[in-house]
Amino acid sequence: MKGYPAVVTFRVEYGDTDGQGRVYYANYLHFLDRGRCAYWERAGLSEDAIRQVEHETVVAEVHCTYRAPASFYDTVSVHTRVARVGRSSLRMEFSVMNDTTATLMAEASMVIVRVDLTANRSVPFETDFKARVHAFEERTLEE
Q: Is pLDDT above 90 for 138?
Protein backbone atom coordinates (compact mmCIF):
# COMPACT_ATOMS: atom_id res chain seq x y z
CA MET A 1 0.00 0.00 0.00
CA LYS A 2 1.32 3.39 -0.92
CA GLY A 3 2.30 5.56 2.02
CA TYR A 4 2.92 2.65 4.40
CA PRO A 5 6.66 1.90 4.39
CA ALA A 6 6.46 -1.32 6.43
CA VAL A 7 4.43 -4.46 5.90
CA VAL A 8 4.27 -7.86 7.54
CA THR A 9 2.33 -10.79 6.07
CA PHE A 10 1.15 -13.95 7.84
CA ARG A 11 -1.61 -16.53 7.93
CA VAL A 12 -4.51 -16.40 10.37
CA GLU A 13 -4.07 -19.20 12.88
CA TYR A 14 -6.98 -21.26 14.16
CA GLY A 15 -6.49 -19.78 17.64
CA ASP A 16 -7.01 -16.26 16.19
CA THR A 17 -10.64 -17.08 15.38
CA ASP A 18 -13.83 -17.17 17.42
CA GLY A 19 -16.91 -19.44 17.40
CA GLN A 20 -18.10 -17.80 14.18
CA GLY A 21 -14.87 -18.77 12.46
CA ARG A 22 -13.75 -15.13 12.08
CA VAL A 23 -10.75 -13.37 13.58
CA TYR A 24 -11.74 -12.47 17.13
CA TYR A 25 -11.82 -8.67 17.46
CA ALA A 26 -9.27 -8.47 20.30
CA ASN A 27 -6.74 -10.40 18.22
CA TYR A 28 -6.45 -7.43 15.88
CA LEU A 29 -4.34 -5.86 18.65
CA HIS A 30 -1.88 -8.74 18.26
CA PHE A 31 -1.82 -8.04 14.53
CA LEU A 32 -1.02 -4.37 15.23
CA ASP A 33 1.83 -5.47 17.51
CA ARG A 34 3.24 -7.49 14.62
CA GLY A 35 2.97 -4.43 12.39
CA ARG A 36 4.69 -2.20 14.94
CA CYS A 37 7.63 -4.59 15.39
CA ALA A 38 7.94 -5.04 11.62
CA TYR A 39 8.08 -1.26 11.31
CA TRP A 40 11.06 -1.03 13.68
CA GLU A 41 12.84 -3.79 11.78
CA ARG A 42 12.19 -2.23 8.35
CA ALA A 43 13.33 1.15 9.72
CA GLY A 44 16.72 -0.46 10.37
CA LEU A 45 16.66 -0.83 14.14
CA SER A 46 18.83 -3.63 15.46
CA GLU A 47 17.30 -6.43 17.52
CA ASP A 48 18.68 -4.79 20.68
CA ALA A 49 17.22 -1.41 19.67
CA ILE A 50 13.82 -3.02 18.98
CA ARG A 51 13.89 -4.67 22.39
CA GLN A 52 14.80 -1.33 23.95
CA VAL A 53 12.06 0.70 22.26
CA GLU A 54 9.45 -1.94 23.07
CA HIS A 55 10.63 -2.05 26.70
CA GLU A 56 10.66 1.72 27.08
CA THR A 57 7.25 2.45 25.55
CA VAL A 58 3.66 1.82 26.57
CA VAL A 59 0.54 1.80 24.44
CA ALA A 60 -1.50 4.79 25.59
CA GLU A 61 -4.30 4.70 23.01
CA VAL A 62 -5.69 2.38 20.33
CA HIS A 63 -8.50 2.92 17.85
CA CYS A 64 -9.66 0.24 15.44
CA THR A 65 -12.40 0.33 12.84
CA TYR A 66 -13.34 -3.10 11.56
CA ARG A 67 -14.25 -3.25 7.87
CA ALA A 68 -14.34 -6.93 6.82
CA PRO A 69 -13.63 -10.32 8.39
CA ALA A 70 -10.86 -12.83 7.94
CA SER A 71 -11.02 -16.54 8.64
CA PHE A 72 -8.67 -19.36 9.55
CA TYR A 73 -5.78 -19.72 7.12
CA ASP A 74 -6.48 -16.47 5.25
CA THR A 75 -3.36 -14.50 4.42
CA VAL A 76 -3.27 -11.13 6.17
CA SER A 77 -0.92 -8.19 5.78
CA VAL A 78 -0.46 -5.32 8.20
CA HIS A 79 0.76 -2.08 6.63
CA THR A 80 2.28 0.40 9.07
CA ARG A 81 3.38 4.03 9.07
CA VAL A 82 4.14 6.71 11.62
CA ALA A 83 1.82 9.70 11.32
CA ARG A 84 3.22 11.91 14.06
CA VAL A 85 6.25 12.09 16.31
CA GLY A 86 6.01 14.22 19.42
CA ARG A 87 8.33 14.87 22.34
CA SER A 88 7.65 11.55 24.08
CA SER A 89 4.87 10.00 21.98
CA LEU A 90 4.30 8.82 18.47
CA ARG A 91 1.18 7.89 16.56
CA MET A 92 1.25 4.88 14.28
CA GLU A 93 -1.37 4.06 11.67
CA PHE A 94 -2.23 0.63 10.31
CA SER A 95 -4.16 -0.82 7.38
CA VAL A 96 -4.92 -4.49 7.86
CA MET A 97 -5.64 -6.32 4.61
CA ASN A 98 -7.13 -9.73 3.98
CA ASP A 99 -4.92 -10.65 1.05
CA THR A 100 -6.90 -13.84 0.40
CA THR A 101 -10.04 -11.86 -0.42
CA ALA A 102 -8.29 -8.59 -1.38
CA THR A 103 -10.33 -6.60 1.14
CA LEU A 104 -9.50 -4.05 3.80
CA MET A 105 -10.11 -5.73 7.17
CA ALA A 106 -9.41 -2.84 9.50
CA GLU A 107 -7.95 0.61 9.89
CA ALA A 108 -6.30 1.41 13.19
CA SER A 109 -4.12 3.87 15.04
CA MET A 110 -1.99 3.54 18.13
CA VAL A 111 -0.24 6.08 20.32
CA ILE A 112 2.83 4.87 22.14
CA VAL A 113 4.62 6.84 24.83
CA ARG A 114 8.22 6.52 25.97
CA VAL A 115 8.32 6.24 29.74
CA ASP A 116 10.79 6.13 32.58
CA LEU A 117 9.57 2.93 34.20
CA THR A 118 11.03 3.79 37.60
CA ALA A 119 9.51 7.28 37.81
CA ASN A 120 6.38 6.21 35.88
CA ARG A 121 6.38 9.33 33.71
CA SER A 122 6.95 10.19 30.07
CA VAL A 123 10.42 11.04 28.80
CA PRO A 124 11.52 12.39 25.40
CA PHE A 125 12.49 10.13 22.55
CA GLU A 126 16.17 10.32 21.68
CA THR A 127 17.05 12.61 18.78
CA ASP A 128 18.64 9.83 16.72
CA PHE A 129 15.54 7.63 17.12
CA LYS A 130 13.29 10.45 15.87
CA ALA A 131 15.68 11.15 12.99
CA ARG A 132 15.60 7.48 11.96
CA VAL A 133 11.78 7.50 11.88
CA HIS A 134 11.73 10.72 9.82
CA ALA A 135 14.28 9.31 7.38
CA PHE A 136 12.41 6.00 7.04
CA GLU A 137 9.14 7.81 6.37
CA GLU A 138 10.99 10.08 3.90
CA ARG A 139 9.11 13.06 5.28
CA THR A 140 9.07 15.35 8.27
CA LEU A 141 6.41 14.35 10.75
CA GLU A 142 4.46 16.92 12.72
CA GLU A 143 6.04 17.44 16.11
A: no
